[in-house]
Amino acid sequence: MSTQAELAVFSPAKINLYLRILGKRADGYHDLETVMVPLDFGDQITLESAKTGVALHCDNPRLPTDDTNLALRAAKLLLERCSVKRGAKIALQKRTPLAAGLGGGSSNAAAVLKGLSLLWQVDAPPEILGELAASMGSDINFFLAGGAALCRSRGEQVEPIPCKLSAAILLVNPGFGISTRWAYESWAKAAVGLTAKPPEVSLLLRALAENDLPGVSRCLFNSLETPSIKKFPVLRLLKKVMRAGGAMGSLMSGSGSTVFGLFAEAEAAEENARQIRKEFGPSMWTQVTKCIST
């Protein structure tokens, strides 16, 4: 439901089915080749028009609501760039774990950019929104585009891809976050011989377009997984339990710490989630979802 005074926006999470680091750039970022898919699980954002100013409220007290928050920064950038004479109240219902490799902050920023453009009736072309997104982070452009995509450069070059994958996806977060900066620095320090050779990304793209779950599972890859597992062995254990429970493939998403498993049936994914909570403790966060097909 939406009016000119209020707008509800869904902010989807994502997983990286493929994340290959090609090298470090002069600007401090890394050149990437990554395949991301949006999920039908995520956060809810309510945008309410205000006379002046932009304020953010979140139901998770652990999430900062100052200018370090990407959603608030996105709102202020849009207001300034488009010379908006109104304000907004942003209410964020946070369901995605923090620092989890699921793109929660980037998704929130993209949702706010798109939502406030409608709420404020700002006629901002996609190029302007894309420019604002790229100035804040690497994954925001992916969420702006919507749908599965092959992303390159530092992630802001987005190429939509067909995705018919119908697998059930089990997300498991061990209860701690992994710093993106630490993950990339650890990758840079790792010996080249410890990094597995990645499969050809074209094979993954074909498997996604054909709903070929075994093919997708064979092509899962993440350059950041090896150093993360070395420091956090629980990630390896989670992957092992997933595979034992019927997952055809399992991988750490993004810079972690969430691990996902791909299952042919939702019932098997739900049963595996119960098994993981039984083995690792009831506080282990689990969520069964699916990707948004394109």
SS-derived structural category: alpha+beta
Spans of at least 5 consecutive residues with low confidence: none
Major β-sheet annotation: 7 strands, mixed
Average residue-wise pLDDT: 93
- What's the domain count? 2
**So what's the CATH class of the largest domain?**
Alpha Beta
Q: Which word captures the global form?
A: globular
Number of helices: 10
What Rg do the Cα atoms give? 19 Å
What gap, in angstroms, lies between the N and C termini?
Answer: 24 Å
The sequence of SSEs as H and E is EEEHEHHHEEEHHHEHHEEHE
How much β-strand is present in the residues? 25-35%
The count of DSSP E runs of length 2 or more, i.e. the number of strands, is 11
Would you give the CATH topology of the largest domain?
Answer: Ribosomal Protein S5, domain 2
Helix content: 25-40%
Q: What is the level-2 CATH architecture name of the largest domain?
A: 2-Layer Sandwich
